[in-house]
Amino acid sequence: MTTTAASSTVEVAGVRIDTRHYIGGQRVGSADTFTNTSPIDGGFLGDIARGGAREIDQAVSAARSAFPAWAALGAQGRGELLHRVADLVERDLETLANIETLDNGGLLRSNRRGVMPRVAHNLRFFADYAIRDLKHPGFDTRGHTNVVSWDPSGVAALITPWNAPLMLATWKIGPALAAGDTVVLKPAEWTPLTASYFADLTKEAGLPDGVFNVVQGFGREAGAALVKHPGISRISFTGSVPTAKTIARAAADNLTPCSFELGGKSPCIVLADADLELAASLAVEQYDNAGQVCLSGTRILVHQDIAEAFSDAFATKARNLKQGDPRDPESDIGPQVHRTHFERIKGFVDRARDEGQTVVLGGEPNADLGGLYFRPTLISDPPPGSEIVTQEVFGPVLTMQTFATDDEAIALANGTEFGLAAVVVSGDREHARAITEQLVAGTIWVNCFFVRDLRAPFGGSKKSGVGREGGTWSFDFYADVKNTVIAPTGWKDS
Ligand code: ADP
Hints:
Layout: E1 3-4, E2 9-12, E3 15-18, E4 21-23, E5 26-28, E6 33-37, E7 44-49, H1 53-91, H2 93-104, H3 108-133, E8 139-141, E9 144-152, E10 155-159, H4 165-178, E11 182-186, H5 193-205, E12 212-214, H6 219-227, E13 234-238, H7 241-252, E14 258-261, E15 267-270, H8 276-285, E16 299-303, H9 307-320, H10 339-354, E17 358-361, E18 377-380, H11 387-390, E19 397-403, H12 406-413, E20 418-419, E21 421-425, H13 429-438, E22 443-446, E23 461-462, E24 465-466, H14 471-478, E25 479-486
Parallel strand pairs: 10-11, 10-13, 11-12, 13-14, 15-16, 15-21, 16-19, 18-19, 21-22
Antiparallel strand pairs: 1-2, 2-3, 4-5, 6-7, 8-9, 9-25, 14-24, 17-18, 20-23
The chain binds adenosine-5'-diphosphate (ADP).
């Protein structure tokens, strides 16, 4: 990996990536940069432009200038361009997968098979949805016709996290652009590279200058300047609860509508009638992406009658997980994204152990691998209310608690300030339904995990989020929803 100071590009995964901002179709540098390293081995990836209020101002201004023509292009014209970007994502899928793995440490095989195809799908799905599916039947009020439409709203400010950088960015970029908004994206500072590469693809695809802009930098600098900017019409944010509160305060001055997808502390409920093999497999899946998944069911709640058998099945599967370099196709779990985050996870586990809690599996860094690899961990019977069962760890750390009755299971499941997701494992449809009806969560998976349909609403209850995205819900957010009431009278032809 080499940097060329003059051109501000860096070579990663065999391609050159521009590390400057992308504003109004041009590359724009900043006086300052910050260093980006790989979680795999700490290797240098690049010095990235460190944007602030000045660059945000330029980007919002470019997005505002591009807005009228983009809005006027209509869903069909915008959709064709989004499909062209998706074609280029698919052409460069291997490159994007490699860049993302170097930048955030996610498994290369997941990036190839699941994540990058989903990036293209995010663009295609919302492009087509705006063209074909975004319809309202309209309704009649004493002969007056109500026509509901989704009008472009302006500039969407998108703030994204590091755990699935380009997938979560395009989950917002797709609907925002399809709705006719222009975009300023501020990617997470730990994982800036795929957004920058993606900007070049939008240029190559022929997206008009200023329709899509990227400003790199820190949350407290570039991010803070973006969300308080009076020139934006929407803020879509995925990240932590404290940052969402800061953003909401900044947005309040301009009353900018916000969509927040935040953390979770989701339960994985194993009922006494569950298929044990399935339950153990689903529970082990909660270690995916080294536990850096907001949706993970990190609190395993298991019926006391099957707790022992379940624990044995779980431990066998968890011990079989291979931790290693995320580029190795044999690896199941890679490193944590960043030293700061690694230390945070370790802090949670160390404190639980210091309190005398039982660490059944893992509980420490993987000494064989060194660096940022933390062993898949299970803590059993944590005291109710302890931080390990109430706060989001966002690492490969699960807890296991037992329950005797459904009421106890529901109370435990709903007993945090979060409500993002839940997993329920049961062999009895009626029993599963009775449980899911009482859970407070944006998404519930029954006998499965991570099955996602972009038509479905997605978001969190309680502190896990504000609003829903997906299908029409995305357009309800990014667009200005308008109702036109047309009288039956007053027409020259009537
Ligand atoms: P994490 O998921 O690491 O806990 P955050 O929720 O803080 O982090 O970060 C998610 C995204 O929010 C990142 O792109 C980050 O730069 C951005 N961010 C952090 N602080 C702010 C802020 N005050 N204003 C706007 N964006 C921010």
